Amino acid sequence: MVSTDVGVWIAAFFTIVATSYAFRDNIFFRFAEYTFIGAAAGHAIVMGVKNIILYGWTHIAGGEPSYWIPIILGILIYTRYHPQYCWIYRYPIAFLVGIGVGISIRGAIHADFIKQIAATAKPLIATTPLGTLNNIIIFVGTITALTHFIFTYEGIHRGAAGWIPRIGRWMMLAAFGGAFGNTIMTKFSMYQGRIIFLLRDWLGIIH
Amino acid sequence: MSTWEKLAALPREIVLTIVLIAMIVPAIRPFRLPIMVGKMSKDWYNTVDSLPDSPLRHRIQLRGLSNPRPMRRRNPPQMFEKHLKIIIMATQLEGSMMYPLIMEKVKPEKNYGAEYGKDYVFLGYIAGAQTAMAAVLGDIHTAVKEDYYGTPIDQIPLLKEVKGPESYDLVAYLTTDGGIAEGWVYQAYSRYKLTVVGGFLSMMTPSLKPYYDAGALKGILDGIKGAADMEYMTHHPGDALRATDILSATQTIVLIFIAIGNISYWGARLSKKEGES
Fold first, then answer.
1. The domain containing residue B216 runs over which residues?
2. What is the ipTM metric for this complex?
3. Which of A74, B99, B114, B240 is most buried (CB neighbours < 10 A)?
4. A195 with B247: Cβ contact below 8 A
């Protein structure tokens, strides 16, 4: 049975007009696009204000004056729009970058370097034949792909060992192919959610 | 224009219509193709399943758009069935919008006898990404003053039990953002040495799977496939299992079009060479 919910009809309308772009650009699609951008911006502003109140103003009102510091730093970002004082905005940005790097770099070094090197440098022979094959592919793929990025010694690309970076390139191409296949699957899985919504929630064809 | 060239220049309207039909038909009449549960999903399930019941705490992070919705609907039930204590937070804006939609389906009070504040709590959206993760994991009482509904966290029984990072047994996150997915690994795993499982879009899996291979992520839910695996393992068939049929049909069509595109390209090239000679 077709839905009688106005919200479902609005969602169905926007789903259909958003899909219409795949066939040709049209005024309905642009309407949907602008509506989405407007709604998203409105929501972001409301959440931003709520966050300032919750994590800034509440603390100040509770007798914690140190919370003025992030609020002032936040306001200083807007000096970017003043031609004379735009240099001031660099200070809050520097603060943000410093905090961001400081917080993430420790985890990044551990998870992206130490753990990855340890995971790559493991015995080639595993407990199962498939595991052994995987380990060999990881070993060969890592070494050959790394040689592809050696630019300081031209001989490795043109000499007798030129097949090594070539294998590395093929390995990377295979990885890009796999990543692209996953991307296609993701896009389809996003849209199939809308198809199920149209058929079930809107038209009531499926249950 | 030769037949090969005509084949290669198939109008996109025709291609898209065929793909749409390939989506609609299995949605109406499912093929019920067999499901092969992946190892990454099994590891996620087993990691959650291996947690002892009740007094332990569990965190799930929410963030995202429409795609991982079946994934989100599937995971809280496994945790509620085990009567785990769940602290939910959003590190992206959309998370706070997703929460009521998910809980409307999960119905923890009705279906699992869970009580808000004692068994689970939602902190809402906390800005700052990794800064927020580090702050909440390190000292939740300093980082957060109230939950999503405005209740001071000192009055929430579940949060009274949380002392520091050692209070958490598992960090489980669902996201459509690569930065957030990496952030939880950096903060929860590398910094606080917690067990972490992650669910994200299939297109993010190639760049995040190395964390799983290295042991930083104990389990992965790989997009809609991971969600279908969870529905299968928890015996709650839903949208994700239906979606696997749709995906199988559409991807078969895509494979056929890729084959047609390549055959027509090589056919056109060969016929051009023959014409020249």
1. 39-237
2. 0.83
3. B240
4. no
